[in-house]
Specification:
It is built from two helices and no strands.
Length: about 90
């Protein structure tokens, strides 16, 4: 085994890409709710802006997750197709 991931990148590079994606999704979810909390404290609208921020953060993170899964799915499908062609050629 060469130590590279399936897409040709070193394992640490692939792992750091995943860490970056997961961290950005977590920030996308938490930051709008936190900003809503700060706005609620400032303007005295206690639970409303936190809820709006949480909903917006959740929607944004779900969109990010959907695009991420599509991108990874396309990448995996391309690898499987090229692998199937190689298997046919070897027989």
């Amino acid at each position: 085994m060469s130590g590279a991931s399936n897409d040709g990148r070193p394992p640490m590079v692939a792992a750091m890409w995943w860490v970056q994606q997961i961290t950005s999704i977590a920030v996308e979810m938490a930051l709008p709710a936190f900003l809503g909390h700060l706005a609620d404290e400032r303007w005295g609208t206690e639970p409303w802006l936190v809820g709006v921020g949480a909903l917006l953060g959740f929607a944004g993170a779900m969109l990010h997750l959907l695009t991420l899964t599509k991108r990874v799915g396309r990448r995996n499908a391309g690898r499987q197709d090229s692998g199937a062609d190689k298997d046919r050629g070897e027989k």
